[in-house]
């Protein structure tokens, strides 16, 4: 027989299920009303009741905001401070007074790790792999649910890795290269499926080592490789056919800096001589310069993310420059945009930036 405490909890749960989300309104209309609340206030809504908290984490709520074109994209930055401590920051790009906010403390196991990868799928952030001077490469994965604002352990990678490359495409994360406990790290793909929360691993004889960069473009995973004579070349992996092909040689020039895709167009921040924004022209198969950016504001090395038509250039100490590619103006060859220089106590190096829309 159930204990009195279990009976009480079951009764309260059943009673709660029959309580409307908002008194006087059917639930479908209440969900429509709650979906219009800006994302910055969702943490307040979760405190109202268990039903509201569960609703805000549901696919039903996310779909409702998507149908009404209300999804808001926030930027997440994985950083390391001068004490070699890892931390995450978040930026809401919508309010007029933008500022970076320290995210909830990352799992203690990841605080001192190096060589981790940082990815985003659905409404979750992922910290993958890594190592330290006291720890061999690991296959551990941690995820942060941006709806519940909680970290938890996720399914482990098939292969322990550190200093490896990853890319998120569709509902999958593709992982390859790096250092591991065996040669499997350099000649295999580990692929994570978000919906099933499972990993699969594939040995790939077409996989060429010495990958220095990976990114997503036109539904393919592009990799940039560095040869023994210090020259780069590019390859492309098609997940639908699981086949590799050589990419245009000029594509490999994106090893000069971070890349981002805005409205199906690939951009690169060339950091070799100052900071200069470049655009990939598909027809001509070449990089075209768009304009220079003030290096005092960009503070390279930088990371790039896109929100709508805007490119966010996030540099050291989380200094941020925003360039709207639909409205970008030039003054004597210099691109004009807005900037944000946070006042932070610690020197921060930005390892990676990702976006999540809710």
Précis, in short:
The chain is mainly beta and 358 residues long.
SSE layout and pairings?
Layout: H1 4-17, H2 27-34, H3 42-45, H4 50-56, H5 59-67, E1 73-81, E2 86-91, E3 100-102, E4 117-121, E5 124-128, E6 141-145, E7 150-153, E8 165-169, E9 172-176, E10 188-193, E11 198-203, E12 211-217, E13 220-226, E14 232-238, E15 243-246, E16 259-262, E17 265-270, E18 275-281, E19 286-293, H6 295-298, E20 303-307, E21 310-314, E22 320-324, E23 329-331, E24 334-336, E25 338-340, E26 348-357
Antiparallel strand pairs: 1-2, 1-26, 2-3, 4-5, 5-6, 6-7, 8-9, 9-10, 10-11, 12-13, 13-14, 14-15, 16-17, 17-18, 18-19, 20-21, 21-22, 22-25, 23-24
SS content category: mainly beta
Q: Helical region count?
A: 6
- Uncertain spans: none
Strand order of the largest sheet: 3-2-1-26
Span between termini: 43 Å
Give a quick account of the main beta sheet: strands, pairing sense, barrel closure.
4 strands, antiparallel
- What form results from the Cα inertia axes? globular
Q: Calculate Rg over CA atoms.
A: 22 Å
Average of per-residue pLDDT values = 88
């Amino acid at each position: 027989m159930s204990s009195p405490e279990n009976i009480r909890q079951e009764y309260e749960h059943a009673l709660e299920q029959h309580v409307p989300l908002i008194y006087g309104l059917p639930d479908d209309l209440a969900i429509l009303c709650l979906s219009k609340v800006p994302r910055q206030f969702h943490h307040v809504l979760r405190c109202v009741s268990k039903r509201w908290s569960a609703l805000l984490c549901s696919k039903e709520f996310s779909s409702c905001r998507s149908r009404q074109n209300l999804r808001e994209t926030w930027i997440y930055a994985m950083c390391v401070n001068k004490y070699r401590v890892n931390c995450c920051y978040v930026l809401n790009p919508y309010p007029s007074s933008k500022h970076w906010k320290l995210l909830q403390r990352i799992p203690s196991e990841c605080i001192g790790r190096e060589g981790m990868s940082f990815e985003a799928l659905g409404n979750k952030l992922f910290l993958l792999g890594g190592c330290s001077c006291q720890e061999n490469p690991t296959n551990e994965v941690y995820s942060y649910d941006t709806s519940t604002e909680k970290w938890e352990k996720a399914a482990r990678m098939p292969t322990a890795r550190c200093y490896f490359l990853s890319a998120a495409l569709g509902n999958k994360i593709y992982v390859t290269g790096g250092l591991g406990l065996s040669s499997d790290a350099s000649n295999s793909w580990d692929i994570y499926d978000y919906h099933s929360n499972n990993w699969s691993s594939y040995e790939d004889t077409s996989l060429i080592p010495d990958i220095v960069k990976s990114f997503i473009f036109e539904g393919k995973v592009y990799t940039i490789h560095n040869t023994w004579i210090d020259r780069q070349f590019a390859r492309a992996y098609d997940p639908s056919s699981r086949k590799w092909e050589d990419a245009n040689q000029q594509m490999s020039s994106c090893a000069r800096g971070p890349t981002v895709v805005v409205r199906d167009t690939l951009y690169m921040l060339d950091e070799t001589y100052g900071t200069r924004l470049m655009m990939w022209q598909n027809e001509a198969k070449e990089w075209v310069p768009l304009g220079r950016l003030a290096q005092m504001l960009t503070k390279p090395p930088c990371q790039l993310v896109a929100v709508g038509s805007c490119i966010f250039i996030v540099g050291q100490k989380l200094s941020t420059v925003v360039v709207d590619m639909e409205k970008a103006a030039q003054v004597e060859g210099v691109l004009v945009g807005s900037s944000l220089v946070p006042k932070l106590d610690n020197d921060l190096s930005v390892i990676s930036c990702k976006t999540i829309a809710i």
